[in-house]
């Protein structure tokens, strides 16, 4: 964890401090940390637990349970390729391969240049214009392998 | 220069299909003004641009930026009322789609919004539940449980605090109607939840929205804020507060007990029932968990009466079904029709056959836990009873068509 994270983390956690009668909400706190830092560094668990008034194990348990919570930093841009039924029927697998070739990483790894992280996702609810690729919060539909280079170009 | 007012959808799928590219390309053009509406759900035609004519709206399909002169000149448009995919539908819950701006509260009200809410002002909680019983509405989230029974349990369970929760986890692959409602007609969901809250005596509501739907969560937050500012949320004798909560990616969290665990911030694990959430749910209090589409169906039922709803559909499945076509079908999109049409006719009339170069292999209905139908079994009526008899489930109405190239092994993993 880089040092600049520390004040941000403390600041974020202050907004998650439970105010009675509200009970502590671990998932909400972890999502807030992720949205501030981009991921939830495991080294932050004790601090999170302390602010919420729960045990480290409870925080770690929730953190490991949810697939959208990440403990590793991602590249500057997160590419998620839908592997749901409609996208699979529309050759989403070929799109995934083309993206992997283009950024030359295995799913879940980071490129050396720290530009992209590539992951698979379940149905994005965009089935009617599938196959779907989500880049950060932008959704792209009817994606074909041939448009991958121009699709990724703006994400520097 | 005269400015032509045109309509362009602003939901996630239309943007993904190129609507955003059009809006960007035309942003500096004085001859056109774009009103960003919800999508009609005919996604195979998106991006679709519409404009008013004396005979109703006309549309241009699969528009690209250099189609601007044709649209402004009024050349080559198709009357929206003559698009077969839409013409053959019966839109009630989706009646505003493609027409209104999602966050324009006044438009929602002009088109009959909050009429259901007004109707319940003169009804006792028991009378609201009775109206739901007459309507014979069954939950649209998958289990198809009669809505009124759940409401009656929560109503009759004594508690100083009760909750309503909209299940917006939409986990079944191939489904997107909940996302469309939240992005395209958010006040309808709010109204449905308010009616439910009044019937059961709840004062707090949550919308549990999956992480993959950031635009839906944002639209709901804006809509709640607008409703609050217009004093619609807090009626004099009835304080009600509503909050959007975002999940974090676990298919199991769509199951209601797991969802409530997750809402409390814990791991989303399935708990044993009973007790059912209607007796003991969120923080141990009576809680109605219902699907987004279920809540969105309720305003019309209260506005037009339970008997109106019961008059649509088949014996065991009353009202309209909302199907979402995807996969290798030629015309993917959202379909709302009364229950009862066969799967074959749905695919034929609305799906328009297979995508070019594709041969039919099978169709999957009801998401990952649903069933596969080969060509020989397509004459099954789409309703809860026929599906149950065939050992299948209709689930959330997702229909994905596979072709001869689909590798079924890839799908199983
Ligand atoms: C594994 C599993 C996943 C589910 N996922 C969803 C879902 O994504 N959305 C939903 O509304 N219901 C889902 N359900 C059904 C809910 O448990 C619950 O029955 C439903 O939200 C009730 O709403 P309804 O009465 O409006 O149908 C799921 C059930 C199971 C067992
Ligand atoms: S049915 Fe499948 S997804 Fe649902 S709880 Fe059981 S194992 Fe999990
Ligand atoms: S299957 Fe990919 S968006 Fe639905």
Textual characterization of the structure:
The complex is a heterodimer of chains A (156) and B (413). Chain A is α+β, with helices and mostly antiparallel strands. Helix content of chain A is 40%, strand content 12%. In chain A, a hairpin with a 2-residue loop joins strand 3 (133-135) and strand 4. In chain A, helix 1 (5-14) packs antiparallel against helix 2 and helix 3 packs across helix 4. Chain B is α/β, with parallel strands linked by helices and 413 residues long. In chain B, helix 6 runs antiparallel to helix 7. Chain B starts with a strand and ends with a helix. Chains A and B meet through helix 2, helix 4 and helix 5 of A and helix 1, strand 10 and strand 14 of B. Bound molecules: flavin mononucleotide (FMN), iron/sulfur cluster and FE2/S2 (inorganic) cluster. FE2/S2 (inorganic) cluster binds next to helix 5 of chain A.
Write the layout of secondary structure elements.
The complex is a heterodimer of chains A (156) and B (413).
Chain A: H1 5-14, H2 26-37, H3 45-52, H4 56-65, E1 77-82, H5 85-89, H6 92-103, E2 116-121, E3 133-135, E4 138-140, H7 148-152
Helix pairs in contact in A: 1-2, 3-4
Chain B: E1 4-9, H1 12-26, E2 32-37, E3 49-53, E4 56-60, H2 68-72, E5 78-79, H3 84-87, H4 105-110, H5 115-120, H6 125-135, H7 147-156, E6 163-168, H8 177-184, H9 186-200, E7 204-209, H10 214-229, E8 241-246, H11 256-263, E9 287-291, H12 292-304, H13 306-310, E10 320-327, E11 333-338, H14 343-351, E12 360-365, E13 371-373, H15 384-389, E14 398-403, H16 408-412
Parallel strand pairs in B: 1-2, 6-7, 6-9, 7-8, 10-14
Antiparallel strand pairs in B: 1-3, 3-4, 4-5, 10-11, 12-13, 12-14
